[in-house]
Write a structure and sequence with these properties.
2 copies of one chain form a homodimer.
Chain A (H helix, E strand, L loop, with lengths): L2 H16 L8 H4 L13 E5 L7 E4 L7 E3 L2 E4 L2 E3 L2 E3 L9 E4 L2 E4 L5 E5 L2 E3 L2 E3 L10 E5 L2 E2 L4 E3 L2 E3 L2 E2 L4 E3 L1 E4 L2 E2 L4 E3 L1 E4 L2 E2 L3 E6 L3 E6 L4 H5 L11 H7 L6 H5 L14 E2 L4 E3 L3 E2 L4 E2 L4 E3 L2 E2 L4 E2 L4 E3 L2 E2 L4 E2 L4 E3 L1 E3 L4 E2 L4 E3 L6 E3 L4 E2 L4 E3 L4 E3 L3 E3 L2 E2 L5 H4 E3 H6 L1 E6 L2 E6 H18 L12 H4 L4 E5 L13 E5 L4
Parallel strand pairs in A: 1-3, 2-4, 3-6, 4-9, 5-10, 6-11, 9-12, 10-13, 11-14, 12-15, 13-16, 14-17, 15-18, 16-19, 17-20, 18-21, 19-22, 20-23, 25-28, 26-29, 27-30, 28-31, 29-32, 30-33, 31-34, 32-35, 33-36, 34-37, 35-38, 36-39, 37-40, 38-41, 39-42, 40-43, 41-44
Antiparallel strand pairs in A: 1-48, 2-49, 7-8, 23-24, 24-47, 43-45, 46-47
GO molecular function, one term (chains A, B): transferase activity
Organism (chains A, B): Alkalidesulfovibrio alkalitolerans DSM 16529
Protein name (chains A, B): Transferase hexapeptide repeat containing protein
């Protein structure tokens, strides 16, 4: 048995101990999921900039195809084609306030991944766990294809493919395929596949469930198999375009980039594309024949194809926008699938919020009026009736409200406000509003970047695992 | 002042302290030699194989374009486009005998480079220093373009461009341009440019000096300038061919390679080339329109152009062979320049030994009979008279002997035997005789190799320096 197979069994054991309640047998989902040899094929790359505190430590782990930025420790883990983004880790000495209690960090925050397996997972660290300020931890956790661990610490969790856990703290939970959860402190919960759940304690709660059969059509995973469905097909069919990029030490960009914008050399940019000022295109984003207006951003694992963005558009991690025209400040949430066709274009009016994990898979042209909240499953114009509401109407809701498969409880105004604040925050930290030194964001801070490339043992018992590596700052 | 400039001044100070006697002002040779920004342009790469013990530690150093294999520590040093090859480091527990004294290594041998600057230098560690078995050290040393530090520990030395120090121990010495020294224990010596000096205490001594003006034509360095001359022109004019190779993470080979042979993906192979069984082509070798017969090897920084090797040919580090036909087992020594022309080909009979640092720059066809020792400066057939001797004649020498600029003292038979043994040793360790598991050499041991790529800080005060990195084996 190779060491990497032993490591996988070790991780299965650790996660299984946590997932006794709710009982979930994780083993059949992860055994044989990634062919053992694949772990030896790809390199890890860690980004080095003068603007992000630096510390890496990898021990007894496989890191194939994984990207790192910021302070990070990985131990006894398998990270496969994942993104570990620590560009929003908190700095030593920062003071935060939680429920009126002020607390100061005694050290720089660090991402610690231990006894875990992440497959094509995005980890973005702006932790919302006040109980562990210095350590952003992912422990005893399995996260599968295209899942997002976003501002969420994890212990003993399983994320099925395309699940997103956002701004939470989770302990011993299972998140079903394509579920989206932003619900604070979660313990021993099992989230059904395709559930969209946004909760702010004491303010509001949003719930949506996809109609029967819909999620399976787009993504499903049965034990012993690879994940299947139209979302997987969509991503897999574009996989080849990344190969030349990952074969270069410093890939060349196929597009003109204004000085204030940043297009990662590890993004695919093909066809005739335009990139405006203050645009951010992250690594592993895929842009084809599209125009990104000023301040737009395309985050990790998002796809923008044959589309036009008027500007200040956020496409969150894993968002997909095809044959669409998005007005100014349209927000496309995590893993949303907005797929128009050449003869069935999608037009989205300005300032619309497309909720995370929304599927708009057009069979006819669809036009969404400006300033609407959009969720759920939409294939025709008429579906908007039960899957959207103007932001003004949402803001008027007080108490319980139902529309189609969506239910809401609480203050609509707080919900809208929370979303809008967050979008503004994202635009700001990504550098969309940059006009001078004071308002720099990720688009500007990551311009001076170099990538260090770490390859695993190529043969032998340790094949696919990395040697023990520590990288720390040069202190003159 | 950037940190890398401070580091250069620090190294100058350290080397200057050593070089008080013979007094040599190293500063004007190294200041401004490499543009500061160049250190940020290139990446270091360290090779990872299952067959070579692994340990790397880099501290406060610049490593641009440098290759590493084996256990290595670098501290407060500037390594620029150099090769640090630790594939012949001794293992813990090995027992060696020196002058009848048996000594056992208590630890794996490690290369330690400290307070030194190496520019386009080859370091190959098969140390012949019995006084420091666990540490192969290069300390307070400056080595310039295309110099070779071969099996030689160094403290307080300066190697001018194309100097080679071979199988020695050196303390506070200066080696002039294109000098070659293999002379055991050296202290406070100044070796004139173009001196070829081979000495085995109590057995023989070989000396050669190039005629006036010859070395300057091929290589010269004046303070404040870059090195000049035909050797530099030759290398520089082929520099571009390496660019696509260093731009790829895993460069593709442009030649068919038999299973028993190894061609480094970081070698240039262009035109129509043939590679025989058990051939070894190292990184930074350059092969163009040439045929390498079975068991031939092309070591670091060697160039083989429009030439045919019949087999079992050694081309040592920095050897250059152009428009030539080399019979079986012809040995081409370090930095030798064997340049035929399309209408002035060079034919070398089997088992000839072309001494290190020999220049054969043909203006007419030249044919060297088999089993000859060749040295010095040759441009015409007639020059062979004073610059070669059959091995049988050499073996007959006892006592003093002179021919042209060459002088010999001692036992010719011991000299020939020593050379032949060494060639056999090189062929053996390079895997030229491989036929089964027992006789594997570098060609076979380095086949399963991955390269880790380390980039420096891209901007800011630390630009061009690397973060602190430690890589150690994964211990299951």
């Amino acid at each position: 048995m190779r060491e990497i197979e032993k490591l996988l069994e070790h991780i299965i054991t650790r996660v299984s101990i946590n997932l006794r309640k709710p009982y979930f047998d994780v083993a059949p989902y992860v055994r044989n999921l990634v062919p053992v040899d694949s772990h030896a094929l790809y390199y890890a790359f860690y980004a080095l900039t003068p603007n992000h505190p630096l510390y890496f430590s990898f021990k007894h782990s496989s890191l194939a195809g994984t990207y790192f930025l910021g302070k990070c420790e990985v131990d006894h883990s398998i990270l496969y084609k994942s993104d570990i983004r620590g560009d929003e880790l908190k700095a030593k000495g920062s003071t935060l306030e939680f429920d009126g209690i002020k607390v100061t960090l005694y050290d720089d925050e660090i991402i610690r991944i231990k006894d875990s397996m992440l497959v094509k997972t995005l980890v973005h660290a702006n932790s919302h766990n006040p109980e562990s300020l210095e350590i952003f931890r992912i422990i005893n956790t399995v996260a599968l294809h295209y899942s997002n661990i976003h501002g969420t610490t994890m212990e003993g969790c399983l994320l099925m493919p395309f699940a997103t856990v956002d701004l939470s703290m989770c302990h011993d939970c299972v998140f079903g395929e394509f579920s989206y959860v932003q619900a604070g402190d979660l313990s021993h919960e099992k989230i059904e596949k395709g559930r969209i759940w946004v909760r702010a304690e004491g303010a509001f709660e949003f719930n949506y469930r996809f109609p029967d059969g819909v999620v399976d059509k787009y993504i499903s995973l049965t034990p012993g198999s690879k994940p299947k469905g139209e979302l997987i097909d969509f991503c897999e069919s574009r996989k080849e375009d990344f190969i030349p990029i990952y074969s270069s030490v410093i890939p060349e960009l196929g597009v003109e980039v204004p000085e204030s914008a940043f297009v990662s050399p590890y993004a695919v940019v093909k066809g005739n594309c335009k990139v405006g000022n203050n645009v951010l295109v992250s690594q592993r984003a895929y842009i084809e024949s599209s125009s990104l207006g000023d301040g737009a951003n395309a985050q990790e694992s998002c796809y923008i194809v044959n589309s036009t963005y008027d500007g200040m558009n956020v496409t969150a991690h894993g968002g997909k926008v095809i044959n669409a025209h998005l007005g100014r400040k349209v927000f496309t949430g995590f893993n949303s699938f907005v797929r128009g066709k050449a003869d069935a274009k999608i037009t989205v009016g300005k300032e619309c919020i497309i909720m995370p994990h929304t599927i708009i898979d057009a069979v006819e042209p669809i036009t969404i009026p400006e300033r609407n909240l959009v969720w759920g499953y939409i294939t025709k114009q008429a579906d908007l009736e039960a899957n959207s509401l103007s932001l003004d109407e949402v803001a008027k809701i007080k108490g319980q409200f139902r529309l189609g498969n969506m239910s809401f409880d609480g203050l609509g105004s707080a919900f809208v406000k929370a979303f809008q604040n967050r979008i503004e925050h994202i635009l700001e930290v990504n550098g969309a509003y940059c006009d001078c030194d004071d308002t720099k964001g990720h688009a500007q801070e990551t311009q001076a970047i170099s990538y260090n490339i770490l390859q695993p043992y190529p043969e032998g018992a340790l094949k696919g695992l990395c040697p023990t590596v520590t990288i720390s700052p040069l202190v003159p």
